[in-house]
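Q: My labmate handed me this sequence with no annotations at all. I'd like to see what the chain might look like in three dimensions before we decide whether it's worth expressing. Could you predict it?
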Amino acid sequence: MRKFHFGAGPFARMGMLGRQALVLVGVNGVFWFAWAFGVYQTVYLQNVGFSASSMGVINAISSAVGIVSVAFWGMASDRIGSLKKVLITVLAGSAVLYGLIPFVPTGLAFSNILLLCYVPAVNFFRASSAPFAENILVRNCNELGLNFGMLRSLGSLLFTIGCMIISALLPTIGVPSTFWVSGLLMSVPIVMTFFAREPAAGPRPKTPEQSGGKKKGGLNLGELFQNKAYVAFLVFGFLYYTAAACETNFIPYFMKSVGVDSQQYGVLLGYRALLEIPFLLLMVRLRQRFPLRVLVLGATVLMSLECLGFGLFATSLAGMLVCCTFFGLGSGLFLGSSLNYVYELAPDHLKASAQAFFTSVASVAGIVGNLLGGVIFDAIGAKPFYLTVTGLYLLSAGIFLLSFLRKKGEA
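A: Here is what I predict for the chain of 411 residues:
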C-alpha cells in the first residue's frame, strides 16, 4: 500500500506523537462533530408518524443488526490485523447509506415498512462506526502514552459545537437534510484515518498443539469468557445499556409530553456532551486515585440522577437541562473509564473482539430496552417511565458493585 508523506512542513516537524495526537483528533473528534449533525433520526421518524412503541420496534431491529455488525467487524479486524481498514469501511458505508434515509418515500401506504427495513440495514455499518472510532483512539492512546481523556474531550467539545450549529440551522434546512449533511462531513474522519497509526495487535500465543504442527489459526474467543471480570462486566453492560436505550431513545417523546419542542433535542445532547469534558480532562488523575471499576460505578449513579429528575420535576427545557447536567458528567466519566476497563481486561490479541462483544451486549440490551421501553412508555406515561429507568440504572450499578466486592472478599 502506498504510504502518505507529509513533507517537511510544520506538521512533519511536530514529531510522531504530536502528529498522531492531531490525526486522532481528526479521526475521533471530527467523527463526533459529523455525528452531531445526524442525531435527529428519532425526531425524523416521530415526525413521519412513528409512535413510541413503533420507534421501539425499529430501534430493536437496528440493535439486532448491530449485534451482527460489531461482532463481524470486530473479528474481521482481528483476523486481517487492521483496525484502520475496518474503520474506513464502516465509516464510508454508514455515511452513504445514512445520508439516503430522507430519500426513502414517506407518503406511501407501505412507507413505514420501507423505513422498518432500510434503517436497520444502515445499522450494519453505522452500529460499528462509533465503537471503532473510539477503539482506534483508546488503543493508540494506551500504546503511545497519549492522554485519552484530553483527546476524547475534544470529541465531546466538537460534538457540542456540532449540535449547536445544527440546532441553529434546523429551522432553515429542516430535519431531513441533517442526514446527508452528516454523511458529507463524515468524509473528513475517513480521510484522516489513512494517516492514523495502525494499533499494535499482539501475536496470538501458540498452544503446545499449534507449536507441534497441529491445527493453527482462528481466534480463541473462549479466553475472553473464561475471564470472570470480563463476564461480570458484560452482565453489568447488559443492564446498563438496557437502561441507556430507554433513556436516550425516548427523550423526544418525553419532550413532547411536557410541551418542549423536540427540535431542541440537539441542544440537550450538545449540553450533555459539553458536560462530559471535565471528567475526561481529569481522567488521568482519577485513574491514579481510583480503580477503573469504581469510576464506572460512579458514572452509572450520576446518569441515573438525570432520569430521576425527569421523573420528578422536569417540565421545561430549563428543567431538563438541569437534569442533563448529571448525565453529562456521568457520561464523561463512563467514556473515560469503560473503554479502558475493557482494554485492561482483554489480552492483546483479542482487544478488538473484546470491545466488539461488549458492544454486541449493548446491542442485545438495545433490543430489550427499545421493545419494552416503547410499550412501557405508551402504557404508563413519560414520568413514571423515567422513574423506572432510574431503578434499572441503579440495579445495574448494584450488581456490578457486588461482583467486584465478592471477588475482593474471595481474595
